[in-house]
Amino acid sequence: MTFVTIIIPYYRKKKFIKNCITSILNQSQKNFEIIIINDELSKESIELLSNISKLDSRIKILNNKRNIGAGESRNHGIKFAKGKYIAFCDSDDLWNFKKLELQLKFMIENNLDFSFTSYDVINENGKKIGFRKVKKYLSFNNLKNSCDIGLSTVMLKKKIFNNKNFRFANLKTKEDYVLWLKLAKFGIQLKGLDLNLVRWRKCKNSLSSSYTQKLKDGFRVYNHYLGYNKVSSLFYLMLLSINFIFKQI
Asked: Would you say 221 and 181 are in contact if contact means Cβ atoms under 8 Å apart?
């Protein structure tokens, strides 16, 4: 049975982390390890994650030496991954119990290096407030206009990270978007599985809900990471923002 590494950065999500981990431990596909990277570094988080690690021997905790953010924490976790495949999950999101099984089957049958799925959007109380349906395929040109890949739905082959240019960006938000763009630009096929396998939690006070931070990081995606000039970067940032607004309707 194929072995999968699941990487989860942790920072101030004590209300949700146990439910997140439980949804992964309940997977129908059992051959996996969970690496939780503690980026909060408080006594409370160390104790909390230590107790969570006792739930199952497949859970491993890495404590950062300093706060480095979700993207860099994932990069750190990748170094310790033993799986042929790597899946990512944010510590407040939830997985359908057949997420790993169905997504692995999809990837193996179609000989894919990268896949993502459809997902529900839920609020802090777990109530469904939206839905994101995936496209079957995303090209670089599609993706640079709209970030249509949910981080917690992604599974990819570990061998992708043999190329050291493929890492999460050092941004507060959109750190995953940069990686997906780089992969697409390099020619790796980004294939969508139209099954609702994840519940993505939208929290009011999270960085991902900060429009100002998103705009700053969005500009850096195009200007710094893709090397576009300021005019082009502003143009694509405008398209990205418009598409984001349409997704909220």
From this structure: yes
